[in-house]
Design brief:
The longest helix is centred in the last third of the chain and has 24 residues. With about 280 residues, the chain is an alpha+beta fold.
Length: about 280
């Protein structure tokens, strides 16, 4: 789908959103933050390999769909039946099992194992059992896509908030460890504060209103499925905005000069935590 100018598209599919390469997302900005060559290799190199989704990415996407767009889950995902052996169930039941497997494999859907599906259901149950989390999700705009032009760098940017209220932005995250210390590290590594800063700016530019209440609902992907609700403070949002604005300026220069530096030559020592 061709996007022109600054707009919000409420019914754009996740595939169409990610397929739009005319606008730059938070994940692309964080690729450039690793080093310019990483950005070039992943987004510009004409010979770049197709990026396969990791199991963690598949699980995270499936959970988002299950929680926020459940009406799309059966359209996009298929559950592989539990494996059975001929000697245990007999030929008729085994032939039925093989037929079901063949049907699922030819469906062009993303295939989940029965264990993965049960895991998703337990994660969903953790959210459902939290009155606070459910209140944050209900009666909101889900997966709206925003597109705009950054006035400082001139680059086209995009964002896709999970949950958008009139006065707050909610993002759903899956993680292996939901403790404050672990999630702080993930927030820095993956730029979640950058993501929120971009969403705040995108909504303001497109819709003319400023939202500064940003919340992460976090749930672990394995037992005991700990959950947390983290309110992102003003300092983190300010740092996120400073960071992405500077990255956009650096990215613009790299594009204009066609220079894509990797890690290069540098002196390295032990980190402070190792001393």
């Amino acid at each position: 789908m061709k996007v022109i100018g600054q707009c919000c598209i409420p019914d754009l599919s996740n595939e169409e959103y990610h397929a739009n390469k005319d606008y730059i997302s938070r994940s692309s900005i964080m690729d450039f933050d690793k080093n310019p060559y990483t950005y070039w290799a992943k987004h510009i190199n004409p010979d770049r390999p197709i990026r396969d989704s990791t199991p963690q990415m598949i699980l995270g996407s499936a959970f988002h769909t299950m929680m926020l767009e459940p009406h799309l889950f059966d359209e996009q995902y298929a559950i592989y039946p539990e494996k059975v052996l001929l000697k245990d169930v007999g030929k008729p039941a085994y032939e039925m099992f093989k037929h079901e497997c063949a049907h699922i494999e030819s469906s062009n859907k993303i295939i989940l194992t029965s264990d993965e599906f049960m895991n998703l259901c337990k994660m969903r149950g953790k959210i459902y059992n939290s009155a606070e989390a459910m209140q944050l999700i209900r009666d909101a705009r889900i997966e709206n896509s925003f597109f705009w032009r950054d006035e400082h760098s001139g680059l086209n940017l995009k964002c896709r908030p999970d949950v958008l209220h009139d006065n707050m932005i909610i993002d759903l995250k899956t993680t292996s460890h939901a403790s404050p210390r672990a999630f702080q590290r993930e927030m820095v590594d993956y730029g979640y504060h950058v993501q929120f800063a971009m969403i705040c700016d995108g909504v303001e530019i497109v819709e003319g209103r400023r939202i500064n209440n940003c919340i992460n609902i976090v749930v672990e992907t394995k037992y005991p499925y700990n959950m947390a609700i983290y309110i992102i403070d003003e300092f983190a949002l300010e740092e996120g905005q400073i960071k992405y604005k500077q990255i956009c300026l650096d990215l613009k220069n790299a594009i204009e000069e066609n220079k894509w530096q990797d890690y290069g030559i540098q002196t390295i020592s032990l980190p402070k935590w190792a001393i």
